[in-house]
Each structure stands twice: as C-alpha cells, then as structure tokens.
Amino acid sequence: MNYAEIKFCDIANGKGCRTVLFVSGCRNACKGCFQPQTWDFLYGREFDEAVQEEILKSLEPEYIQGLTLLGGEPFEPENQEALVPFMRKMKAAYPDKDVWAYTGYIYDRDLVEGGFKHTKDTEELLSMIDVLVDGPYIEEKKDITLKFRGSANQRVIDLRATEAGGNICLAVD
C-alpha cells in the first residue's frame, strides 16, 4: 500500500488532536473530491515499517487523542489488507487511543458481510475503528457547516454503540 500524506497534530479529521494517515487508492472518484491525486494506488510513498513506526511514535504524547484513516479509500480491499496488521500494532501499543476512519462506501450496505467491499479483513478492521464517517462525497450536498464531513449525506457513526445496540448510532457532535 502507498500513502499520500501523514498529518501530525491535525484537528480537522476527528475529535481532538490526531495523527492522520491519507492512504492512496480509491475507486469512488467522487465529483469534487478534494484530493483526486489519491485515487491512484501508486501515488505517494510506500507504507513501510519506518513510516508505520513514525506514526506509532507520533501517537505517544498524551495530548494526541488518536489516529484517523482516510484517503484515498481505506476500505479498498488492498488497503484493508495492508491496514489490518498496522492497526493491530497501533491498538496493542495504544489501546486507549481512539480511531476514526473515513470511507466513501456505505457501512451497512457495502462493508457488511456480502457487501460490495466486504473482505476477509473488513470485520477486523472495523473492530479497531471507533468512529466511521461513511458515504460518498456528493458535491451537490456540500455543507461547510457540518462537523467532520463534507456533504449532508455522510454519517458520523459511533461503531462501538452501533455494535452494542444493533442499530446505526450516530456520534454526537
């Protein structure tokens, strides 16, 4: 897997101060995407051990609330496969740090068993994510007043509450 960028001490892509990993590769190709260069799976640099260690070290300070995965598209099958081993390390090192992820796919349609983007890695990856922002960016539904999302169709889902209750639970702003 390649990655496009890493942002340290980011406050725009989830609650609190975070490390943000922008993976490369996306087949959604949303009109108006703010990073169309990340659609290319070969864009950026290789997500190697040194980069992974840099990210893990960046999460060490107490003031860093967690990690955010976005892109590109973290839930492209090849990206899921690369992210799961890294996320195991991240959660082992920092079990109390939260994880946010952004996907252009629909959680309860595309990422569930039998869904369009469900793979052997999906359940494990989702189990390590606390908040999932799902849905494609739709330029006609762009709303700059929304927190943590770009268009009104996107949802900010509390995955732990959703898992516990059996129904989609939206995260409170």
Can you put this structure into words, describing what you see?
The relative contact order is 0.15. With 173 residues, the chain is of the alpha/beta class. The mean pLDDT is 95. It has a seven-stranded mixed beta sheet with strand order 3-1-2-4-5-6-7. The chain is globular. The protein has five helices and seven strands; from the N terminus they run βββαβαβααββα. It has helices spanning 49-58, 77-93, 107-110, 122-127, 159-165; strands at 2-10, 17-23, 45-46, 64-71, 98-102, 131-134, 155-158.
Provide the β-strand percentage band. 15-25%
**Oligomerization:** single chain
Q: Please state the CA-atom Rg, rounded to the nearest Å.
A: 15 Å
Tell me, what's the shape? globular
Number of helices: 5
Termini separation: 32 Å
Output the structural class. alpha/beta
The spatial strand order of the largest sheet comes to: 3-1-2-4-5-6-7
Mean pLDDT: 95
- Uncertain parts: none
Q: Portion of residues in helices?
A: 25-40%
**What does the largest sheet look like?**
7 strands, mixed
At a glance:
The protein has 173 residues and is an alpha/beta fold.
